[in-house]
């Protein structure tokens, strides 16, 4: 309910302004990603920077859409963290962009799966074995699809 209130541009008591902006920015970024999917655009570095810019809008404008010094054309966010802030949010939104382009619904990494998610990411990065990560994403996609079917 609090998220709904924030998305309707009313701040929620007990939440910081940063938390409010993070939710609003996330909504705007999702809308941008939906536009990319609808127009069937190929993902570009400019779009990745734009996604990051939207995530940090009003929070860290100085760093929004800019790589850390020394990073050029990053390929894997998890291992290199090219931005000062917002790497995780950007990478999860890029994951959802790719899922949506393939016709799947976006996923949410639930709190109870967060540790498993981070462990799978770490394993994929350090061992180049992404099986656990792929299985986690598949489980989340199946969970969302089951939810959709339940409400149809």
TrEMBL record:
- Active site per UniProt: 81
Any Pfam family matching the protein: Fic
Write out the GO MF terms. Answer: ATP binding
Q: Which Gene3D superfamilies match?
A: Fido-like domain
InterPro entries attached to this UniProt entry: Fido, Fido-like_dom_sf, Fido_containing
Keywords associated with the record: ATP-binding, Nucleotide-binding
Entry's SUPFAM superfamilies?
Fic-like
Protein name, please? Fic/DOC family protein
Q: Does the keyword Ligase feature in the UniProt annotation?
A: no
Residues binding ATP, per UniProt: 85-92, 117-118
Q: Which organism is it from?
A: Desulfonispora thiosulfatigenes DSM 11270
Boundaries of every Fido domain copy? 1-139
Where are the annotated coiled coils located? none
PROSITE patterns xrefs: FIDO
> Ribonucleoprotein: present as a keyword of the record?
no
């Amino acid at each position: 309910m609090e998220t709904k209130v924030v998305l309707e541009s009313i701040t929620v008591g007990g939440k910081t302004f940063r938390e409010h902006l993070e939710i609003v920015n996330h909504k705007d970024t999702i809308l941008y990603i939906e536009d990319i999917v609808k127009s069937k655009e190929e993902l570009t570095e400019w779009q990745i920077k734009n996604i990051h810019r939207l995530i940090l809008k009003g929070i860290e404008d100085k760093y929004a859409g800019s790589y850390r010094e020394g990073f050029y054309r990053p390929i894997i966010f998890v291992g290199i963290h090219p931005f000062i802030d917002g790497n995780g949010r950007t990478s999860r939104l890029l994951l959802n962009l790719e899922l949506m382009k393939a016709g799947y619904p976006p996923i949410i990494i639930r709190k109870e799966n967060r540790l498993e998610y981070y462990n799978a990411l770490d394993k994929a990065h350090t061992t180049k074995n992404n099986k656990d990560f792929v299985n986690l994403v598949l489980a989340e996609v199946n969970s969302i699809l089951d939810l959709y079917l339940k409400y149809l």
